[in-house]
């Protein structure tokens, strides 16, 4: 009680900001990294929310969605700002006797630096997530084996092929719309707009 009684109104304001911001910030971090409120790195299967654009050459570009990361960034940014604003402002005002104005400036500066660091960390996380997702473009040129016979006339079968050092079974069609039987060696020569691999027999 003696500590609380010794606080001025400005010191109490800084301490309240630090307590609220710090508590919410740490709770969010614990929930984030235990997977309760989301998964920064994506799920175990590497699933992601993506839109696929096909250019004139038939190339497919995948753009991973990061809406959750941006929302979380804003929450973490606000609470991180409050936490550091309160801590640094209180320290400058109480320990270094810098005065209210200088303490406010120091608190705001430290809060902005914290927001910048959080933004940088989440950008890094998103890059890690993107690098871990599967890009079908990497399948083009790879050799594989027909897993389920591809019927003639453009019907779809399945091919087993290594993509980014992972063996995957993907939907596939024949380049010349001919039948390709199971266990036939093939090469991936393209990708359709529906993310179906186009293969030809070797």
Task: Give short descriptive properties of this protein.
202 residues; alpha+beta; OB fold (Dihydrolipoamide Acetyltransferase, E2P); 2 domains; two-stranded antiparallel ribbon; 4 helices; 7 strands; 22% strand
Describe the 3D structure.
β4 and β5 (166-174) form a beta hairpin. This protein has two domains: 2-132, no CATH class; 136-201, Beta Barrel (OB fold (Dihydrolipoamide Acetyltransferase, E2P)). It is of the alpha+beta class and 202 residues long. It is 45% helix and 22% strand. The chain has helices spanning 2-6, 9-33, 67-94, 100-132, and strands spanning 50-54, 60-64, 143-148, 157-163, 166-174, 185-191, 197-201. A five-stranded mixed barrel has the order 3-4-5-7-6. A two-stranded antiparallel ribbon has the order 1-2. Residues 39-68 have low confidence and may be disordered.
Q: Per the principal axes of the C-alpha atoms, what is the gross shape?
A: rod-shaped
Low-pLDDT residue intervals, each spanning 5 or more residues: 39-68
Which structural class best describes the helix and strand composition? alpha+beta
Q: In what range is the share of β-strand residues?
A: 15-25%
Please give the number of β-strands.
7
Distance between the termini: 82 Å
- Helix-residue proportion: 40-55%
